[in-house]
Design goal:
heterodimer, A: about 500 residues, about 75% helix, B: mainly alpha
Chain lengths: ~500, ~35
């Protein structure tokens, strides 16, 4: 079976950037910078980008490109005993997909509310009460919420149409539409934001450097964590996407462009959001909004800011929530592609059949997050899958590729086909820097978890939706790694430029 | 807005968008995009 390829280099880069740019760029990076030294945070942030982000991105690009396969196939080609790691990452992507889609559903619903400012005056009460119908706790499901079910299905339908059309006609075409629209929308919101009264004070909060913070080790861990999560690393996405690249592809420069555009988008989002935060403080006499990150920033603080705008309230509301929708959809599609390509290869099934089956199964599972307890379950699952699944699978990946296998083989794969040489420092970052940083983050997460349970949840809820999910996907990954391939000839082909 | 904040904002924008522009320029000069 001939492997599909991207139609152009720009198409691949836009798809990879689209995958990397997600909701976290909009609602995580700005707050992290503000909370960790403002402008001074950019120093550890860019240091982390150069010493971990770009090196791991390049590692994943070269693995997928050399092995011409999804993550399980790529790891299986390195040795059948490593295949489980690919499946673990695929299952991590599956869990993320089934809750991420619901947040996109919320963004679609809020795009609609923007036309009438339907969230009213008390935006927090509207979000948790009228919209989510949030129950008393994670075990009290409270029934499906009709509007959220409908918008979640709409997000699944968009993903289905794109993925069914394939790599070139689907993902590439969608990325070429979504990404320019996203940037234009962000620029419009940014221009509106920086022209509001008080915007300068907001930007001062975001960029005025507090150098004392960069001597704090926790700030560096946060910077590395932010870089790690923002580039969609250890989700198996970049391995999968690069497997569709043609033979002669400039992997080094592709990694630099993808990483820099993603981080550039984060900086622009920060400018847009904090100019709006400054405006809110200007209107309230200097009071800092209570929620400056995560879902409450997007679905409570921003609607409140929109209410206070002197003009163009509906337009800015629609554009902001459309930007969340597009940023979310491009990442969501890439996460789904990870699972689809892996299953299709393992079972030697036609891609379109897998797209249909996967959409139905994953779509069904995602409905649990549309219930009145959806936000609780989503919050716990996200915390465990990101904090343990992604971080630990990232540690396993860099140790396996850096230490167990011969890392120089990958360098001698990508250097001859790339426009510039990257040198031995790349091997050093993969073998030394990234295992230390990611291992440190994993240890920190474990210590935190056992010293103080996450959130205000009961232990039962944390075990059911957190530990169980995190452990189940690891065990299932190991089991899947032991099962046979329908077409074992797939395990024999790879590219070599040595 | 203070001058230090302006400097760091420009630093962030230059390093990311400027860096990406340089890489894209190299890519376009050497191969097709």
């Amino acid at each position: 079976m001939k492997r599909e390829t991207w139609g152009s280099r720009a198409g691949f880069i836009l798809a990879a950037v689209g995958s990397a740019i997600g909701l976290g760029n909009i609602w995580r990076f700005p707050y992290m910078a503000f909370d960790n030294g403002g402008g001074a945070f950019l120093i550890p942030y860019f240091f982390a980008l150069i010493t971990a982000g770009i090196p791991i991105l390049l590692l994943e690009f070269s693995l997928g490109h050399k092995m011409k396969g999804s993550a399980p196939l790529s790891f299986a080609k390195l040795g059948r005993k490593y295949e489980w790691l690919g499946w673990w990452q695929v299952l991590i992507s599956f869990v993320i997909a089934v809750y991420y889609v619901v947040i996109i559903g919320w963004a679609i619903a809020y795009t609609g509310y923007s036309f009438t400012l339907g969230w009213g005056e008390d935006t927090i009460a509207f979000f948790v009460g009228d919209f989510l119908h949030l129950t008393e706790g994670p075990f009290q499901l409270g029934g499906f919420q009709g509007l959220i079910v409908a918008t979640t299905i709409l997000a699944w339908l968009i993903s289905f149409v794109v993925l069914y059309a394939g790599i070139k006609s689907g993902i590439e075409k969608a990325s070429k539409i979504f990404m320019p629209i996203l940037i234009v929308i962000l620029l419009v919101v940014l221009v509106r934001g920086v022209t509001l009264p008080g915007a300068g004070a907001g930007l001062d909060m975001l960029f005025k450097p507090d150098f004392s913070k960069i001597f704090n080790a926790g700030v560096w861990v946060d910077a590395y964590g932010q870089i790690f999560f923002t580039l969609s690393i250890a989700f198996a996405i970049m391995v999968t996407y690069s497997s569709y690249l043609p033979e002669k592809s400039d992997l080094v420069n592709n990694a630099f462009i993808t990483a820099l555009l993603n981080c550039g988008f984060s900086v622009l989002s920060g400018i847009a959001l904090f100019s709006i935060v400054g405006f809110m403080m200007h209107e309230s006499g200097g009071e800092l909004p209570a929620k400056l990150s995560g879902v409450f920033l997007a679905f409570a603080t921003i609607p409140e800011a929109i209410n206070q705008l002197p003009a163009l309230q509906q337009l800015i509301g629609v554009l902001f929530f459309l930007s969340l929708t597009f940023a979310g959809l491009s990442s969501f599609i890439s996460i789904n592609e990870v699972v689809i390509s892996s299953v299709s290869e393992k079972m030697a099934l036609p891609r379109r059949k897998v797209v249909v089956g996967y959409t139905l199964v994953a779509g069904g599972v995602s409905l649990i997050f549309t219930t009145g307890a959806g936000l609780y379950i989503l919050d716990i699952a996200d915390h465990w899958v990101m904090g343990f699944g992604v971080v630990l699978s990232g540690v396993a990946e860099v140790i396996l590729l850096g230490w167990v296998l011969k890392i120089s083989d990958l360098r001698s794969h990508f250097e001859p086909i790339s426009d510039f040489k990257i040198g031995k420092w790349w091997e050093f970052t993969i073998k030394i820097v990234t295992p230390l940083i990611l291992g440190g983050s994993a240890v920190k997460n474990f210590v935190q978890e056992f010293s103080k349970p996450y959130g205000d949840y009961s232990i039962g809820a944390l075990v059911a939706y957190g530990w169980t999910v995190a452990l189940a996907i690891l065990i299932l990954g190991i089991v899947l790694g032991k099962t046979g391939w329908k077409d074992s000839s797939m395990l024999e082909t790879s590219r070599s430029h040595n | 807005m203070s001058s230090s904040a302006i400097i760091f904002m420009i630093f962030g924008l230059l390093l990311t968008w400027g860096g990406a522009a340089v890489c894209i320029f190299i890519a376009m000069k050497k191969r097709d995009m």
